[in-house]
């Protein structure tokens, strides 16, 4: 089956549609915001310009009003001076003029006529107690200077102490017909009238106009209370600007600042020139920018509306795009879960339509492939099933075979008369056969007589290595031996191991896995040698005791017969009787030899012979032996020869007496079997050893008999009926070989053939340096003793 | 003539040696075990003792030790009589003061006499 890939179902299409919607929204909003911003910005720019112009216009208007007010007063006064020569007129005329002037102009509070020197010619006032002259707010000199230059004079604004109203003094020159300045007409003008003018100027819906002089004093405003308080407005930024910038006309642009009503206003001002005042026009910001704000609100509304529209449109559009995709995904999911029957139901010439077509084609292909694949899988599965069955069958067969093998093996092992124990890697017993159990539990005939002495009933069925080790404890470390066998992968043979009243041979063999070449345990074969041991001992003891017991009477026979021969032979007349005595003597000698051989053999086999090895010269020993034979073996006419080597041969290390015995045996045998020719001895040096050859020219040993040499009681031509008893017991070579082996050497038949003589070799170890030193030291002592002996004698 | 004491438990042996030695002119006394041998060594005062190794009551080695400890008998030459089986004991006896050992079965009585005569010679 195909593996089903889990597709995060909802998120992808949802995500896509929301992304698209968002993108659409973002783009529309961005465009709108940009366009509205530009629109607003340029609108604002335009609005500002027009506002500034409008304000300037209003300000100019206001300024004109104020200027007109002043100009009007000046004109009135000027006109009055032109029509009458006031300086020369009578007091009454002057007074009349002044009264008329009061009548014309309500803002005139006082009127005076002065000559050019400043002398009061006439004065008139609406309030009687007031005199212009006394006013200290203006400078008469300044007034006069200005007048003399034929210019009118405007005093600074001042406040009337009584009414608290702002006043100004306007003075115009009085000229005669020659246009000469003869005096001045000065009027104290109540600026309250100007307030009305200024206050009546309408600026927008809630705009204000006010007039400020160069000191920042409020001169005219619709709130007269503030004017009456003579408020100083130099703190207002616009006013500050006016005060500080001098004559410069900077009415460019529009400034937003705190206005006179302490609200945010758009303000502008216009200088009057003369008087040195400025008219300020303030329009509340909200009002000034009302249209812009309205525009802005409309724009924002448009943006919001457009956004909503964009969301709807975007959602719709994205749906349009993602719906087919979702359809595709659904079908793809079905396919991925193995259902190939579904097709995407989308027709169209656009990309998605084409995708659907390709997708359907692909699905068809996939379905084909998949069904092919399924078929193949089915086939392969069937094959596998078959193979599996055959393997299972094989396993069953093999298991049965194995089981049979095991049964056979178990039966084999159980049928063994030898004890068999197999241990695992941790020395635990895996397998133990009946024989081993019997031996360990002393259930054997050999243990029978003493069996009751040891209670082993508790042991049955739970024999383990610990028990074995415990039982053997002081005699042998079995576990250590097993470990050694395992680690060194060697067989270990433990002989004559006493186990309770039994004697056992243990053969430890490591079990090595062929596959891993590791030791997985050991096999211990247990051989009960008790019976053999007892038999051997009995036999050995028999030989030993018998030999010993036989020897004493034999020695007596030998000694007494030799006594007769040595001392009483002459007293025996009968030669036959002499012959009998001699036979008795020789028989006793032979018998003693036999018994000696038996005894030697018995002791050799029991390992009870002690060797007293020393370094000695084998050549000399050979010559000594040959000398003895030279004397005694003279019956035969054969040669006995020692072939001395050309070079000094090394000393050997052995028991001289035993080696002598061996040489005697070899030479004796050689002489025995040689009728012609003779016997020769030679040596050959080998590494660490020296080889002595005894060669005879006798009858030789037939090949078929060579195997019997060195065997107990065997003679070269042996057959119990043809045995030649005169030639000895047949123990000589057997004993010689045992002795030579005990001394680290050996005896071998080097070569022989029927009728061609025989060569035997005796090998023995050569002496080491320290052994030679010992030998030399002994020889020295012996030599000294000999010298001393000689001296003594 | 020289006096020889034979300490030997087997009368077959002792009689044989007595016979040949007397024939050769020695004065011979017999003892059947170590204890008797030790006593007779004092009373008989022989020049030489033929001492068997294996004997009842007191064996040859013990007897030899005792003889060598006794000043009265310490000077007497002792020759060990033995068989092949206890050659090692006989050799040990050499270190305890015996002058020679003889393996009984290896020598004819006449040879024994010759050896003894040789051993006694330097003294004479």
Low-confidence stretches of chain B: none
Portion in helices of chain B? 40-55%
Largest interface, C-beta within 8 A: A-B, 21 and 17 residues
How much helix, percentage-wise, in residues of chain A?
A: 40-55%
Distance between the termini of chain B: 11 Å
The total strand number of chain B stands at 5
Query: What distance separates the N and C termini of chain A?
Result: 122 Å
Largest sheet of chain B: 5 strands, parallel
Spatial shape of chain B: globular
- What's the shape of chain A? rod-shaped
- Figure out the total of helices of chain B: 5
Calculate the mean pLDDT score of chain A and round it.
79
Q: Biggest sheet of chain B, strands in spatial order?
A: 2-1-3-4-5
SSE blueprint:
The complex is a heterodimer of chains A (793) and B (124).
Chain A: H1 9-83, H2 91-104, E1 108-115, E2 120-125, H3 140-148, E3 153-154, E4 158-159, E5 166-175, E6 181-190, H4 192-200, E7 208-213, E8 218-221, H5 224-228, H6 237-244, E9 255-258, E10 264-271, E11 277-284, H7 285-288, H8 290-336, H9 351-415, E12 419-423, E13 429-432, H10 434-440, H11 465-472, H12 478-488, E14 492-499, E15 502-512, E16 519-528, H13 530-568, H14 575-606, E17 613-616, H15 618-632, E18 639-643, E19 652-655, H16 656-672, E20 678-686, E21 689-696, H17 703-706, H18 732-742, E22 746-752, E23 758-765, H19 769-792
Parallel strand pairs in A: 18-20
Antiparallel strand pairs in A: 1-2, 1-6, 3-5, 4-5, 5-6, 7-8, 7-11, 9-10, 10-11, 12-13, 12-16, 14-15, 15-16, 17-19, 20-21, 21-23, 22-23
Helix pairs in contact in A: 1-8, 8-9, 13-14, 14-18, 15-16, 16-18
Chain B: E1 3-7, H1 11-23, E2 27-31, H2 34-44, E3 48-52, H3 60-69, E4 77-82, H4 87-95, E5 100-103, H5 109-120
Parallel strand pairs in B: 1-2, 1-3, 3-4, 4-5
């Amino acid at each position: 089956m195909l593996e089903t890939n889990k597709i995060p179902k909802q998120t992808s299409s949802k995500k896509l549609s929301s992304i698209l919607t968002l993108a659409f929204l973002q783009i529309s909003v961005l465009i709108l915001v940009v366009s509205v911003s530009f629109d607003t910005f340029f609108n604002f720019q335009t609005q500002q310009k027009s506002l500034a112009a409008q304000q300037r216009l209003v300000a100019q208007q206001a300024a004109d009003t104020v200027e007109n007010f002043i100009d009007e007063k000046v004109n009135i006064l000027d006109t009055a001076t032109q029509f009458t020569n006031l300086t020369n007129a009578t007091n009454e005329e002057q007074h009349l003029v002044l009264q008329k002037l009061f009548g014309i102009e309500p803002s005139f509070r006082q009127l005076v006529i002065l000559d050019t020197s400043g002398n009061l010619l006439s004065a008139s006032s609406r309030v009687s107690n007031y005199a212009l002259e006394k006013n200290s707010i203006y400078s008469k000199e300044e007034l006069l200077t200005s007048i003399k230059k034929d210019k009118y004079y405007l005093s600074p604004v001042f406040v009337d102490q009584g009414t608290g109203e702002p006043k100004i003094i306007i003075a115009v020159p009085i000229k005669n017909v020659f246009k000469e300045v003869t005096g001045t007409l000065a009027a104290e003008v109540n600026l309250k009238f100007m307030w009305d003018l200024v206050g009546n100027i309408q600026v927008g819906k809630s705009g204000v106009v006010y007039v400020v002089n160069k000191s920042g004093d409020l001169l005219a405003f619709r709130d007269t209370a503030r004017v009456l308080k003579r408020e100083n407005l130099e703190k207002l930024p616009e006013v500050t600007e006016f005060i500080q910038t001098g004559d410069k006309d900077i009415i460019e642009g529009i400034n937003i600042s705190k206005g006179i009503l302490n609200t945010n206003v758009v303000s502008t001002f216009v200088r009057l020139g003369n008087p040195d005042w400025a008219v300020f026009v303030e329009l509340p910001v909200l009002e000034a920018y009302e249209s812009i704000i309205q525009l802005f609100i409309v724009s924002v509304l448009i943006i919001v509306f457009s956004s909503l529209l964009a969301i709807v449109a975007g959602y719709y559009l994205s749906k349009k795009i993602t719906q087919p995709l979702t359809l595709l995904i659904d079908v793809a999911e079905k396919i991925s879960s193995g259902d190939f029957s579904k097709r995407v139901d989308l027709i169209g010439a656009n990309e998605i339509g084409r995708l659907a077509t390709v997708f359907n084609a692909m699905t068809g292909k996939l379905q084909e492939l998949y069904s092919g694949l399924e078929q193949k899988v089915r086939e392969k599965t069937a094959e596998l099933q078959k193979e599996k069955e055959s393997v299972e069958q094989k396993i069953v067969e093999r298991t049965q075979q194995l089981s049979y093998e095991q049964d056979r093996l178990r039966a084999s092992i159980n049928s063994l008369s030898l004890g068999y124990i197999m241990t695992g890697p941790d020395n635990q017993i895996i397998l133990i056969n009946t024989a081993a159990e019997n031996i360990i539990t002393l259930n054997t005939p050999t243990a029978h007589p003493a069996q009751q002495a040891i209670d082993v009933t508790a042991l049955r069925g739970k024999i383990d290595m610990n028990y074995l080790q415990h039982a053997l404890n002081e005699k042998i470390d079995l576990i250590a031996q097993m470990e050694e066998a395992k680690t060194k992968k060697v067989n270990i043979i433990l002989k004559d191991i006493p186990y309770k009243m039994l004697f056992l041979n243990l053969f430890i063999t490591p079990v090595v896995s062929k596959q891993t070449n590791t030791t997985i345990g050991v096999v211990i074969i247990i051989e009960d040698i008790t019976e053999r041991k007892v038999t051997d001992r009995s036999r050995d003891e028999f030989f030993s005791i018998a030999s010993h017991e036989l020897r004493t009477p034999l020695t007596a026979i030998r000694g007494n017969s030799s006594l007769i021969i040595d001392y009483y032979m002459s007293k025996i007349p009968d030669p036959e009787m002499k012959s009998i005595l001699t036979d008795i003597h020789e028989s006793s000698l032979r018998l003693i030899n036999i018994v000696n051989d038996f005894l030697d053999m018995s002791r050799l086999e029991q390992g009870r012979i002690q060797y007293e090895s020393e370094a000695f010269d084998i050549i000399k020993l050979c010559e000594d032996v040959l000398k003895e034979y030279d004397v005694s073996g003279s019956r035969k006419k054969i040669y006995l020869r020692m072939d001395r080597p050309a070079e000094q041969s090394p000393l050997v290390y052995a028991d001289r007496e035993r080696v002598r015995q061996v040489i005697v045996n070899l030479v004796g045998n050689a002489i025995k079997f040689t009728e012609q020719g003779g016997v020769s001895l030679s040596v050959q040096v080998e590494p660490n050893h020296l080889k002595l050859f005894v060669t005879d020219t006798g009858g030789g040993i037939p090949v078929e008999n060579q195997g019997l040499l060195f065997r107990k009681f065997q003679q070269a031509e042996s057959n119990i009926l043809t045995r030649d008893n005169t030639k000895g017991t047949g123990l000589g070579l057997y004993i010689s070989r045992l002795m030579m082996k005990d001394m680290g050497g050996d005896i071998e038949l080097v070569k022989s053939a029927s009728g061609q003589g025989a060569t035997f070799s005796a090998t023995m170890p050569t002496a080491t340096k320290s052994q030679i030193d010992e030998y030399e030291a002994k020889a020295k002592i012996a030599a000294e003793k000999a010298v001393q002996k000689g001296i003594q004698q | 003539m020289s006096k020889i004491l034979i300490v030997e438990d087997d009368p077959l042996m002792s009689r044989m040696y007595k016979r040949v030695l007397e024939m050769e002119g020695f004065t011979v006394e017999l003892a059947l075990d170590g204890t008797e041998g030790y006593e007779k060594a004092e009373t008989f005062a022989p020049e030489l003792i033929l001492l068997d190794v294996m004997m009842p009551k007191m064996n040859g080695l013990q007897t030899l030790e005792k003889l060598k400890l006794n000043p009265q008998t310490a000077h007497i030459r002792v020759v060990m009589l033995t068989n092949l089986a206890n050659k090692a004991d006989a050799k040990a006896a050499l270190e305890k003061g015996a002058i020679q050992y003889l393996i009984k079965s290896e020598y004819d009585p006449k040879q024994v006499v010759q050896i003894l005569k040789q051993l006694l010679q330097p003294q004479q």
